Amino acid sequence: MRKMLIIGATSAIAQATAKLFAQQGDALFLVGRDADKLEVIATDLKVRGAAKVVYITLDLNEFAQHADLIEQAHTRLEGLDTVLIAHGALDNQLAGQQDYAKAEQTLRTNFLSVVSLLTLIANRLEKQNYGCIAVISSVAGDRGRQSNYIYGSAKGALTIFLQGLRNRLHSANVCVLTIKPGFVDTPMTVDFKKGLLWAKPETVARGIYRAIQKRKNTVYLPWFWWFIMLIIKMIPEFIFKRMKL
Questions:
Q1: Phi-psi sector, 79: left (phi>0), alpha (psi -120 to 50), beta
Q2: What count of other Cβ atoms lies within 10 Å of the Cβ of residue 4?
Q3: In this structure, CATH architecture of domain 3-241
Q4: Which helix (H) or strand (E) holds 133?
Q5: Residues 9-43: pLDDT tens digits?
Q6: Which keywords fit this entry according to its UniProt record (predicted)?
Q7: How far apart are CA 222 and CA 36, in angstroms?
């Protein structure tokens, strides 16, 4: 039985992933900002077979609360071996271009808050010599584009941070999984025009579940995004800068 902390538990991808672990009888500690949503999700996960479901509400940009959050998860689950970090915000790119304060908020939510959490989690799992940390980054971090380079730079920095953390924790038997979803049909992308490349949260969740079980390093979800991003990364800069992406 896993003892799993899910941060950003009200996100569509996190909810779908939690259902898969609940069906295996795992114990879950959920963190989100909306108490009503968390209560509904927790009730559903118990019905699906979770051994235990506990939840707390927290604004994850309150960095000073992170240490207590990790301690509560460890205490109430009576141990901690798996963590999924799924929170984030796809803020308005144009607003961030005009106002540094808004750009900084995007970086705090999508990068700095995750680094704060990972520092605490990594130290704990490294000390116990086992565990798995899975973090949702994004294909947006693979190459900067004019349409979302502030969000993308936060995710790109996160991807590099996770690479280093994976290198550090390998000898401690702690896996670090970088998850790179492409376009996902969630409430966060409700205003976007959908097409063939868009995936359902349930599809991404199944990929996350399999990647955690296999202790993979990096996974693109769905899989075809690996090919798409390979091509995008290979485009020479003198051509790429002329493209409207």
A1: left
A2: 26
A3: 3-Layer(aba) Sandwich (3.40)
A4: strand 131-136
A5: 999 999 999 999 999 999 999 999 999 999 999 99
A6: Membrane, Oxidoreductase, Transmembrane, Transmembrane helix
A7: 31
Under DSSP, the state recorded for 90 is: -
Residue-wise pLDDT tens digits, 46-69: 999 999 999 999 999 999 999 999
- Run of H or E residues at 56: strand 52-57
- Between CA 139 and CA 36 the distance in angstroms is 31
d(CA 200, CA 26): 24
Q: Which amino acid is at 235?
A: I
The single-letter code of the amino acid at 142 is D
What are the contacts of 18-23 at 24+ separation with CB within 8 A? 18/45, 19/44, 19/45, 19/48, 19/205, 20/205, 20/206, 20/209, 21/50, 21/209, 22/46, 22/48, 22/49, 22/50, 22/53, 23/48, 23/49
